[in-house]
Amino acid sequence: MSEREQHTPPLPAPSLWPIGFAIGIACVLVGLVVSTAALVIGLVVTLVFGGLWVRDLAGKRPPAVAAAPKPAMATEADLNATTDRATFLSLATVGVGGLIGAGVTLPALGFGVLPSFVGDRVETKEVDLGPISNFPEGQYVIATYLEDPDLGEVTRRTAFVRNNGRTEAGEPSFTTIFSRCVHLGCPVQPNGPIDEEARQEVNGVELRPVLAASFGCPCHGGLYDSEGNRNAGPPVRSLDRYEFSIRNGNLILGRLFSVGDVDGTGAKARISKYYRAYPGVHVDGIEKWLYPIPTPGSTS
Amino acid sequence: MAKSTRRQQLEAVALYPVDWLEERSGLVGYTKWFLFRKVPHDISWAQTLGAATLTAFIVQAVTGVVLAFYYKPDPASAYASVQNITEEVTLGWLVRGMHKWGASVFIILMFFHMARTFLFGAYKYPRELNWIIGVLLLALGMLEGFTGYLLPWDNTAYWATVVGINLNATAPFAGPFLAQFLQGGLDIGPDTLAKFYALHMLLIPGAIMALIGLHLYLVVRLGVTSPPWSSSSAGRPRPETDGSRQGLIREPGTPASDGGQE
What we know:
The complex is a heterodimer.
Chain A: H1 2-6, H2 17-33, H3 36-58, H4 76-117, E1 127-131, E2 140-146, E3 156-166, E4 172-178, E5 189-191, E6 200-202, E7 205-210, E8 214-216, E9 223-225, E10 230-232, E11 238-247, E12 250-263, E13 270-275
Antiparallel strand pairs in A: 1-12, 2-3, 2-7, 3-4, 5-8, 6-7, 8-9, 9-10, 11-12, 12-13
Helix pairs in contact in A: 2-3
Chain B: H1 5-25, H2 27-35, H3 49-70, H4 78-87, H5 92-119, H6 128-150, H7 155-169, H8 175-183, H9 190-222
Helix pairs in contact in B: 3-5, 4-5, 5-6, 6-7, 6-9, 7-8
């Protein structure tokens, strides 16, 4: 028993190198997302501090006070020689094993996690809603379409589109609201009768005119006015909208963006526009500081 | 009492494989250590909730593996494959039902088990670590519920997961990234289904099994707690006791010493 205790390696003295090493690793991880320069700096810091740490552990031995209290059977020199070799071998095993482990784990972990953090799988698909003559002025039309027909029903989306005529500058104006509630993402419904007889289908897009005075969410009672501003319930901002363009007389829906609030109505509306955020995420007011980084993929 | 020669021969034949295994692995000894241990004399059905929870988990694991034979985790065929399991495959309805209802049973039993542990004070020294592991198991069990709910790929599954992921997104700072990790994009899509399937049947069950192993090891090492009204306490004797703690943990069955009452 006492012999085993003598072989206990003395604890290494406290050192700052591991902290520098950790900072380096953190810098590498941030750099992987943010910039190559930070990545390189992080690598250098990691290597430098890692090297210092290893040199510290392997080279200088702390005074063996802790291991000393019992009289040693062997001479101290023998003891040191034994523990040194054992310590070196343990460190070498841990070090080489760690390197191999990191070589396997880091790529796998990066593959598992990073695509979501760099916006890899986010792309905007434009949607052609057909000729703008299908959109009577001043009335909402429910446009339902498949964002990616290959993927099927899971990409079914609904937009509420209202032709506002022309702006003061003579540009065509449309209100293009995305149907997902900005509380937790349920499908918002227009409050008003749907004119099912005027239903038509244009290039796979279903169009149904509706007299929508407001929009309501069935899940938790969020209520929005006809411009998508929150009237009541838990939503934290106005309904998201699409960017739109008109090409060859067809209305094209583009990228989605989030809306703080809408001032005014129809063609005269002033919209405070933000990068698309998740439902429930504040884009304005003091709470926006809780979500400082735009969602990956929303800015491109 | 002398045994007949024939009986001795029979015993030798029966015990030979056991001895063979024990001599080469020590597994028989470990199994005895695991199974045949002293418990307080006044335990009741309440102490079986942990074993019941374990059974529920094993049911989930077994039925889950079998369901995976027939389930297809891609958006085009997931719903149809679940319908196929329910309607066409022999006994598919039963196994799917066991997995579906067993999931609720598992969660409910975890809560009952936790309540028993809490009310009996079984989380106290030296069992704090086991409580912590139990809390991790509870969280992982809930994650199993969350990821499994999407897999039938019907409207309930879809919209519940939309709401669940967006709930995650509202967490300050990390929320949007967490949501994006979970659904692999800005909206639920094929990546979400595949990812939830992998989490549901590989990552989380693996973690749960590892933690259950640790949980059970600690139960065996520390022993079963007596009920709070018990006159005796149980557990293996501590390997070393210093003077101040003397008497805190006793051999089962020995009378309580003064000042040593837990």
